[in-house]
Amino acid sequence: MIKKEIINTFFIADLNELKNEEINLINNAKSALESAYSSYSGFSVGASVLLESGDVVNGSNQENVAYPSGLCAERVALFYTSSKYPNQKIKTIAISAYSKNFEIKEYISPCGGCRQVMAEYEEKQAQPIRILLHSPNNKVLIANSVEDLLPFIFRSPELKKY
Ligand code: THU
Fold first, then answer.
1. Pairing of strands 139-143, 130-134
2. How far is the CA of 104 from the centre of ligand 1 (A)?
3. Which of 61, 82, 92, 95 has the most neighbouring CB atoms within 10 Å?
4. How does pLDDT run across 1-58, given as a tens digit for each residue?
């Protein structure tokens, strides 16, 4: 038996250490919280996607009385991005969250399903996506690729036929 280890690299920064483009993106993600439809959980998530062209696409979580029919903010934003700008590369995604039921003290990290979707778009564009997780104390967790948030990403190039 051999032991192997995975090293995940990420950064913690103060919001004001980021460049303006990224501060704006985080502010966009915070604004997107207002459009969350989170009547069942009271937990709102905003995501904002920055494209290489400079275009920005926002998304928020959309819930449903049939709970699994809802969708996370990150996937709303990413799927809309890919529908509207199928040929543009995604540079960065910023994520922010708010709960009306409790105080969020730490970074809210995207769920596994959303990380898998990020991984698909990284693969599609052959370029990593930078991920900014905004914490209420104005700290930002930065990952330079979803690979740092999702070890053992499901990959199967054989499944891609065209
Ligand atoms: N949610 C997101 O929008 N993104 C995540 O990465 C985690 C969870 C949403 C889904 C649901 O509407 C609410 O947060 C509570 O799980």
1. antiparallel
2. 13
3. 95
4. 999 999 999 999 999 999 999 999 999 999 999 999 999 999 999 999 999 999 999 9
